Structures are given as structure tokens and as C-alpha cells.
Amino acid sequence: MKTPLAPGTPTQQPYEVRFDWGREGLRGIAPGAGAIVVVDVISFTTTVEMAVTHGLQVQPYEGSRPEAEDAAAEGRFGDARLAGRRGDPGVSLSPSSITERNVAAFGARRAVVPSLNGSRLSALAGEYGVPVIAAALRNRTAVARWVLDRQRRMGRRAMVAVVAAGEVRTDGSPRFAVEDLLAAGAVIDALGSVGIDACSPEAAAACAAYTGLERGIRHLFTASVSGGSLLADGQRADVDVACLTDVSDTVPVLVDGVFVDGSDGVDASDVSDGSKRTERADQAEGRLALPDQSIEVNVAVPSFAKPVISPDTATFTGDGE
Predict the structure, then answer these.
(1) In the structure, what pLDDT confidence band is assigned to residue 270 with cuts at 50, 70 and 90?
(2) With helix as H, strand as E and coil as C, how does 241-270 read?
(3) Does 52 score more than 70 pLDDT?
(4) Calpha distance 95→50 (Å, rounded)
(5) Rounded Cα distance, 276 and 131, in Å
(6) I want to staple 204 with a disulfide (CB 3.0 to 4.6 A). Which of 43, 89, 200, 305 is the partner?
(7) pLDDT digit string (tens) for 236-245?
């Protein structure tokens, strides 16, 4: 008889690349991981990628928007400023709000960005003491190359936990988000392309979803529940920028609770347990540098769904091992 898993039970442990959903899924696949990749493509991680690309650090907030507003009113964010709600003027949760002009007018180097899903998930992931990366379609290959470089520096394989944020309903219950499945699958596909390919069945299935539906991404995003909601609210631009694939080399890495640009080599030693929020992240700043209506389905299940036999002792030599 199948026994229900208790919250926090480690899962997918034999595999180099793991995949699950939300905070409970994170608690299952993060133990033993050498890096955590968070995906909330509409819109938190897309916004983070664009903000960091424009030189703006992003602090994920673990609480609700009203709690963040109270904290801001009490001056608890220090030199950081609270970003606006989606659709507000200036820098906000909307990725389309991240423009050179808006960032220049923001008045701070660090933005606190609350969201129901990706922000909270990122803040929780920061408690595991390993690199946390914000991934989207836009930077999926850059993220894979960053993880490969980390493995090279470590001299061994490092388990990768890919976590899709999904959505929540007003009662707090989770809602499946196809856009996060596809974006997570895109990251897993990119990891496989650089030789990080020992996937759990869950990760292999997410990858197959992306590779089978890749040519219909734009339509799937705009026609999804999340995308349709944004279109109805006049926020089509947020969906359009989230659909773009491999247009950025920026890799936002969580350093002391703040996303900074890791594409120029934020080292693992820069990553702490999140207890310190700003000082080292500020120091790291110097390193910053119409929908397609047809969907072609060509699902090819990845051939790399195999467990890692000995992750702690495996010798790593480079691409494709």
C-alpha cells in the first residue's frame, strides 16, 4: 500500500537533477542539493532576471504584500525600497516595468519585491545554505552554464533542485501553473545540454513537456490561466517578455538574502544562510555587470533519467560527463 509522505520527507535523493512544486516540494528535494533553482516565470523570477540585468538588486520578501508595506512604513528595509504592485508606476512586480528609466528613477540599489509565490519560495530556499538561482526562459542556458561552472569549481557533481513556484488561490490552496512547468522543463533541458543530465522521473517529465511543446510556448503562455488573467488586466507585456528564451546571460544568485548578478562569478563562499541581508550583497554589486495558434507536439522522453551512483565521490571533468 502506498504510504502518504510526511511534510519534509526527502524525495528524489538518488538523482542529480530533481523537480518538484512549491514550498513543500522544496523541502523534499532541497536536502543534499548543491544548488536550488527557483522558477516563477509569470512573473517573479522573470522580474528578478530583468532587474539584476539592469543593475538593481532584488530582495525577496517572505511575507505578504501588506506585511511588506508595514515594514517599509516602519523603515525596516534600510536603504532598500519596496517595489510597487503589478501595474503600479515605476519599478514593480511587473517584469515590463524594469526599464532603464524606471530603475534610474527608483532611488535605491535594492528593491524589496513581495509576491505570493516566487518571492516566498526564494526566501525559504535561502535557508538551505546553498546557491539559490532565479531562473526563467530568458536565462535558462546561462543558469545551466553557471551550475556547470560551480560543479567544476567544486570538483564533483552537485545535485540540482529545480522548484516550480506554481500559483495559489485566494484560499491559499495551490494551483498548477503550466508556464512554470514549461520554464522549469526548459531549465532542465539546458542542464542536460551541458551534461548535467541524471534526472529524476519528475525532472525528465518536465523536460519532455518543454521539448515537446517548445514551438508553442508563446501560445501556451498567453492561453494559460495565468497568462489569460494578465491579458484580461491589460498586462500583456508581462507575458510577452516572459516568453522570450535565451535572451539574457544574467544569473541572479541569492547572496545573504538578496539576488545579485552571479554571471561574473559570485562564489559559493558568498552564499550564507540568509541571516545577513545586505552588507555582502552591497559589496557584491561591484561584480554586477500575436500568439502562434499552432502547437507542434513532438514529445521525446529524455534518455538521461538515471540515478547518480555516487555523487560524493564522482569525479567531474567537464561537459558531457
Answers:
(1) low
(2) HHCCCCCCCCCEEEECCEEEECCCCCCHHH
(3) yes
(4) 7
(5) 15
(6) 305
(7) 999 999 999 9
> Residue 52 burial by CB count (10 A; 0-12/13-18/19+): exposed, middle or buried?
buried
* Cα 104 to Cα 87: distance, rounded to the nearest angstrom: 18
For 17-78, give the DSSP string. EEEEEHHHHHHHH-TT-SEEEEE-TTTHHHHHHHHHHTT-EEEE-SS-HHHHHHHHHTTTTT
CATH architecture of 17-287: Alpha-Beta Complex (3.90)
Computed over every residue of the chain, the mean pLDDT equals: 86
- Tell me which residue of 193, 214, 224, 217 sits closest to 302, measured CA to CA: 193
User: Is residue 210 a contact partner of residue 31, using CB atoms and an 8 Å limit?
Assistant: no
Structure-block grid coordinates of residue 300:
521525446
- Residues paired with 132 in a beta bridge: 36
List C-alpha distances in Å: 141 to 136, 218, 242, 255, 311: 10, 18, 15, 21, 23
**Arithmetic mean of pLDDT, 304-321:** 40
Domain ranges across the chain: 17-287
pLDDT at 266: 61
